[in-house]
Amino acid sequence: MNHEVFPNSRLYDTGYCVLFVKDVEPDALLSRIIESNATPLLINRDEAEAIKALGEEIEAEDVPGLDVEELETTGMLDNSGPLLRAGAYQGWSFVIESEGSYLAGDAVLKLASAGAIAYCARLSATGASWISYAENSEILSSFDPLFVDRDYGKQPEVLDRLTGHRAAVVSGDRAEAYENALRQIQERLGCLIPAGVDTGRLSAVRVPGQY
Question: What is the pTM of this model?
Answer without folding.
Answer: 0.94
